[in-house]
User: Which sequence fits this backbone?
């Protein structure tokens, strides 16, 4: 079952919007809590200030009628140590949250009518402080409640302040500050957030959508061009590279490099197939001609020529098969190969070939492939030598061609021919390349020997190069990492 398609732009927009939404909710919650805490603290401060103003008057023995009990229509209660309401705001109709529900001063005879709750409230209001006459308590108790004044009911924060008087004993002053400002500010802030946050999230989503669309536009161009290349099979085309010098530009550059390598590989394969077909045509045509003549005139059969063409065809097929395996990335075997012994075996039976080899020069690899390298180098040297070919095998402590360090095995094949021009020293390792245009295909090989030798050397982590000998001939040097 295929998964539903979700574009990178949609996922990026959703992710950005979710992150901003979480951040806004967290920030909004923190702001609301901080605002509420500050406003509650301010209300508590106002309530305490009002309570201490009344307590100051009590400390100076002012009568209840001279106390500021009705300032700004805020509820005020004065309770004695027995929990009896002795004074209150004139228009107070109902109150809760102070522990004393009475709103009218009570005579002494009914002081206990309020029950145990009033006694407990009075005990709590003593605060445990020991006060001298005329002294106001330092600690303030804060509580939340509500009150109805002149028909208007509101929430209040109450502050309780004890005061010790000379003639009336311990009194507790309750004064309230309205919480309407706190409720209004919090509700306003919450309303603004409920309206503003969705708008802000919509703006964030829209901006993210536009930015990601602009950022991913080159990617879409690359995709369209790659789809066109796939449909047309035209590997010469390239994807557009934006001028942004960012990851997308590097992606486009890497894609073009891949296309270049792919085009080169495909072209190489096409050329290889064409050249292989051309090379195979000659021995097959020759062999067919000889067989047709022999069929018509058995007495004219050139058996030696037919065998020679068959051998050439067999060698060419083997070379092509080896190249195909090398191109497929076949890893060589990991056997220990003695290059000195291998060089002597390769030179055996070849006239004019001299071998100088140090003992115990070993490498890890495929004996069959390395034997093919030496045979190809010797074939090439004998083809161009005037009289002598020399093979030397030695150890070298310097780094080998693959870039590593340590001991390196070196096999050098030198001839006394005319050498290889500097301009052609890399071209000779290309497939089906012959520098001697006058040499016929029958007299020489197919131009694969040195190409195979170079590929085998690279597969073994080494190098194969050519330079001139001091006498002017060609010196092919194979360097492989020592075992």
Assistant:
């Amino acid at each position: 079952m295929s998964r539903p398609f979700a574009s990178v732009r949609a996922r990026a927009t959703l992710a950005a919007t979710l992150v901003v939404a979480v951040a806004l909710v967290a920030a909004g919650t923190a702001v609301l809590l901080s605002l509420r805490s500050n406003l509650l603290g301010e209300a508590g401060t106002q309530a305490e200030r009002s309570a201490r103003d009344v307590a100051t008057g009590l400390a100076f023995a002012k009568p209840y009628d001279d106390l500021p009990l009705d300032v700004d229509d805020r509820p005020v209660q004065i309770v004695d140590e027995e929990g009896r309401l002795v004074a209150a705001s004139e228009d107070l109709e109902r109150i809760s949250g102070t522990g004393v529900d009475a709103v009218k001063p009570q005579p002494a005879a009914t002081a206990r009518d309020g029950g145990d709750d009033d006694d407990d409230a009075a005990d709590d209001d003593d605060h445990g402080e020991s006060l001298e006459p005329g002294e106001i308590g330092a600690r303030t108790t804060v509580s939340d409640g509500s009150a109805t004044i002149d028909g208007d009911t509101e929430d209040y924060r109450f502050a309780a302040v004890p005061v010790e008087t000379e003639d009336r004993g311990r009194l507790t002053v309750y004064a309230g500050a309205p919480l309407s400002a706190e409720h209004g500010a919090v509700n306003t802030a919450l309303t603004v957030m409920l309206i503003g946050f969705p708008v802000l999230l919509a703006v964030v989503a829209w901006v993210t959508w536009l930015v990601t669309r602009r950022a991913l536009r080159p990617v879409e161009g690359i995709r369209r061009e790659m789809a066109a290349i796939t449909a047309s099979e035209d590997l010469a085309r390239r994807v557009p590279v934006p001028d942004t010098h960012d990851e997308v530009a590097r992606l486009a550059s890497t894609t073009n490099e891949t296309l270049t390598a792919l085009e080169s590989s495909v072209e190489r394969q096409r050329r290889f197939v064409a050249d292989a077909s051309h090379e195979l045509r000659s021995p097959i045509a020759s062999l067919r001609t000889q067989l047709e003549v022999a069929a018509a005139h058995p007495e004219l059969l050139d058996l030696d020529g037919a065998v020679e063409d068959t051998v050439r065809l067999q060698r060419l097929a083997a070379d092509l098969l080896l190249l195909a395996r090398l191109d497929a990335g076949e890893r060589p075997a990991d056997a220990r190969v003695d290059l000195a012994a291998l060089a002597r075996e390769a030179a055996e039976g070849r006239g004019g070939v001299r071998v100088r080899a140090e003992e115990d020069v070993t490498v890890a690899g495929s004996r069959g492939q390395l034997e093919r390298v030496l045979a190809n180098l010797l074939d090439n040297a004998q083809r161009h030598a005037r009289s002598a070919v020399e093979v030397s095998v030695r150890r070298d402590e310097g780094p080998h061609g693959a870039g590593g360090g340590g001991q390196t095995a070196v096999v050098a094949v030198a001839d006394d021919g005319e050498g290889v021009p500097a301009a052609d020293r890399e071209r000779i390792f290309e497939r089906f390349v012959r520098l001697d245009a006058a040499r016929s295909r029958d007299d020489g090989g197919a131009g694969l020997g040195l190409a195979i030798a170079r590929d085998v050397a690279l597969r073994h982590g080494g190098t194969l190069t050519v330079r001139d000998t001091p006498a002017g001939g060609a010196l092919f040097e194979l360097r492989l990492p020592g075992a």
